[in-house]
């Protein structure tokens, strides 16, 4: 969930509590247009994300060690690697949660992500999905998507304003994409684990991110849910760039379709990059990760 979405959710909850407690009546018709835009990314050169020579140290320990990688526009890239390889730290740097000691991170060819705050990074088109689903359990599936739409500063809607026809259509489109059309009115807390994950992905998609960062999206899913998630990601490829951190090799195999590159991280650097079959046959990769 993005920081803005949390803020919107808090407002909605506060309004609900105020109604329940019958305290005052003015309500909080807050708008989301108050922060200046951080810039519009330029993708003409075909690069969505450029990470160059990033080092992050925690008390002298290098969680990332001169990490460099490039994700192209519309690319679906799987990142694999053993526990502690630095995958989460890499996402933390891209999303502004952790500041590196050195290096460069650009979104498109022009946006220096290291100069932006976490909130701004979410607003310029980078969506992040953490491993655990974070949806508003007490709201319906539809309301969760509605909230995500209204938390988008570009929409400039208040949490309490009515949806336009186009916005309703957009929610319908996303509901179909995440296989939750028939569950639109269901309380999110009653969904299965896999459905909650899809709902959160749907909430990210409401803001139409150019780049989606997905941390172990199929952990805890059934085989069928995993398969459907692969189909969903494959349908997003091209329109969005996706970076998927995953340990489930069957899922990675489905996503890469025998032709896409995967990146193997180890000790904060890229250990290998190439087709899944090739990295699976790489002695160094087998030694530190796949062979264990
Ligand atoms: N805030 C922190 N303070 C100290 N050490 C940290 C911090 N965050 C991460 N680390 C260390 O940095 C290394 C990289 O951690 P990170 O979580 O990025 O790895 P990962 O590849 O995501 O692992 P996993 O697959 O288990 O999620 C680990 O050794 C971790 O203990």
TrEMBL record:
Presence of keyword Transport: yes
SUPFAM superfamilies the UniProt entry points to: P-loop containing nucleoside triphosphate hydrolases (SSF52540)
Cited InterPro entries: ABC_AA/LPS_Transport (IPR051120), ABC_transporter-like_ATP-bd (IPR003439), ABC_transptr_urea_ATP-bd_UrtD (IPR017781), BCA_ABC_TP_C (IPR032823), P-loop_NTPase (IPR027417)
Taxonomic superkingdom: Bacteria
Pfam families per the UniProt record, alphabetical: ABC_tran, BCA_ABC_TP_C
GO molecular function, one term: ATP binding
Keyword Nucleotide-binding included in the entry's annotation: yes
Protein name: Urea ABC transporter ATP-binding protein UrtD
UniProt organism field: Aquincola tertiaricarbonis
Gene name of the encoded protein: urtD
């Amino acid at each position: 969930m993005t920081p803005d979405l949390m803020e919107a959710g808090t407002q909605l909850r506060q309004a609900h509590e105020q109604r329940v407690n019958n305290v005052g009546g003015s309500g909080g018709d807050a708008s989301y247009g108050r922060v200046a835009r951080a810039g519009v990314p330029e993708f003409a050169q075909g690069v969505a994300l450029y990470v160059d020579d990033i080092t992050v140290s925690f008390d002298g320990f290098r969680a990332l060690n001169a990490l460099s990688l490039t994700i192209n526009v519309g690319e679906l890239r799987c990142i694999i690697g053993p526990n502690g390889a630095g995958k989460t730290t890499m996402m933390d740097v891209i999303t502004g949660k952790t500041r590196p000691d050195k290096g460069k991170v650009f979104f498109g060819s022009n946006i220096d992500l290291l100069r932006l705050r976490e909130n701004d990074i979410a607003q310029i088109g980078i969506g992040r999905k953490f491993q655990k689903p974070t949806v508003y359990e007490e709201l319906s599936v539809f309301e969760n998507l509605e909230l995500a739409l209204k938390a988008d500063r570009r929409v400039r809607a208040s949490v309490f304003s009515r949806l336009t026809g186009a916005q309703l259509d957009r929610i319908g489109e996303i509901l179909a994409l995440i296989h939750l059309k028939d569950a639109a009115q269901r309380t999110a807390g009653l969904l299965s684990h896999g459905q909650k994950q899809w709902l959160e992905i749907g909430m990210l998609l409401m803001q139409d991110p150019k780049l989606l960062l997905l941390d172990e999206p199929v952990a805890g899913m059934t085989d069928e849910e995993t398969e459907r998630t692969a189909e969903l990601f494959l349908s997003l490829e091209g329109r969005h760039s996706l970076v998927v951190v995953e340990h489930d090799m069957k899922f990675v195999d489905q996503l890469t379709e025998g032709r896409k590159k995967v990146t193997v991280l180890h000790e904060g650097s890229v250990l290998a990059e190439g087709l899944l079959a090739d990295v699976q046959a790489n002695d160094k990769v087998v030694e530190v990760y796949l062979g264990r």
